[in-house]
What we know:
The structure is a single chain. A hairpin with a 2-residue loop joins strand 7 and strand 8. By secondary structure, the protein is an alpha/beta fold. The chain has helices at 62-67, 142-158, 168-171, 185-192; strands spanning 27-28, 34-36, 45-51, 91-93, 99-101, 107-109, 116-117, 120-121, 127-133, 164-167. The relative contact order is 0.22. The chain has a single domain (27-208), classed as Peptidoglycan recognition protein-like (Lysozyme-like, 3-Layer(aba) Sandwich). Strands 1-5-4-9-3-10 form a six-stranded mixed beta sheet. The protein has a two-stranded antiparallel sheet with strand order 2-6. It has a two-stranded antiparallel sheet with strand order 7-8. Helix content is 17%, strand content 17%. Mean pLDDT is 91; it is low at 1-7, 9-13 and 204-211.
Amino acid sequence: MHTxxxxxxxxxxxxxVDPDGWHLLARRVPSPNHxxxxxxxxxxxxxxxAISLPPGVYGGPQIEQLFTNTLDWEAHPYxxxxxxxxxxxxxxxxxxxxxxxxxxxxxxxxxxxxxCWRGRPNCNDFSIGIxxxxxxxxxxxxxQYTVLAALCQALRARYPTxxxxxxxxxxxxGRKRDPGPGFDWARLxxxxxxxxxxxxxxxxxxxxxxx
Length: 211
């Protein structure tokens, strides 16, 4: 979902997510790595991640290959560190703002791992995972923020139960560090217009909001 709007323009909420949880404007790359949510579980949390394969390399097919269990483990030395890993996320936002979807939001994607949000464990059960193509600690692209904010709005329009946004680093502290200090939480809050208490405990006070 590439947009030509100004980078800091607030997206208009829309119901772009169908009843099965597929985003109508996303390119679909179905992953086999998912399962049912527990009985009674609904999406309540958006988890923001960062990923690049190999680390710091952008634009290739390796992320999609990882999430579809087709990655050639011999193609790069780094891949030996993650050999056999079976993971997925609901969405990926490429550096140019392209939106890719792997798992319908009605299903439980395998993105959070061992995790806890405000005292509640197993975040995969009640979350939607969004990967940003990037390296933890490095800045992300303006188009990625615009598309992420629009996606958050569309998801909340479809799932009013979504009440919070956190990074992988916030739900798995000490184990994960993404999206990292290069991610501008103030910018995301400004773009969505969502309340401060919707976000993880990061410094996004008004003095730090992007103009």
